[in-house]
Amino acid sequence: MSAVDTSEISTSIRNAVHHLKQLGESLEINTFNDTDLNNIDHVADTLMALEKEILKLYVDYETESIESSRLRHRLKLLPNSIKNEIQIAVNMARESNVSVIQKLQKELDTLLQRVRAYTDQDKELTVAINSLQ
C-alpha cells in the first residue's frame, strides 16, 4: 500500500468541486435546464461527502495501524512476560517448600530429642531393674 497524503486528496477534491461550481455558473448563463444544474450540485455534494469519508477512513486506518503496532510490540514481549511469570511461580513454590521443609525439620528434631530422652530413660530404668535383682 502506498502512503497517501490527505492534504493532496483534499486539495484535488476541492479543485474538482470548484471546477464543477464554475461549470454550474457557466451553465446558468447558457440554455441548460434546472435538472442539469441540480446534477452538478449533487456531484459537488457527493464529492464533499466522499472527502469526509476518505478522511474518516484515513483516521480509522491510522488508529488500526497504531493498534496493530502496539499488539506486535506486545507479542514480542509476551514470551519474556510468560517466562517471568513462570519464574515467579517457581520461586514462590520453592519458598513454600522451604518453609514446609523447615517445619518438618523442627518436628523431626523434636522427635529425635524425645527418642534420646526415652533411650536415656530406658537405660536408667534398665540399670535400676538390674540393681534391684
Give me the secondary-structure topology.
Layout: H1 6-29, H2 34-132
Helix pairs in contact: 1-2
Structure overview:
The protein has helices spanning 6-29, 34-132. It has two helices and no strands. It has a domain at 6-95. With 133 residues, it is an all-alpha fold.
Question: What can be said about this structure in brief?
Answer:
The protein has 133 residues and is mainly alpha-helical. Helix content is 92%, strand content 0%.
What percent of residues adopt helix (DSSP H or I)?
over 70%
Tell me about the largest β-sheet: none
Secondary structure: number of strands: 0
Tell me the Rg in angstroms.
45 Å
Termini Cα gap: 109 Å
Fraction of residues in β-strands: under 5%
Element order: H for helix, E for strand? HH
What is the count of helical runs? 2
Stretches with pLDDT under 50, minimum 5 residues: none
Outline, from the CA principal axes?
rod-shaped
Mean pLDDT across every amino acid position: 82
Derived structural class: mainly alpha
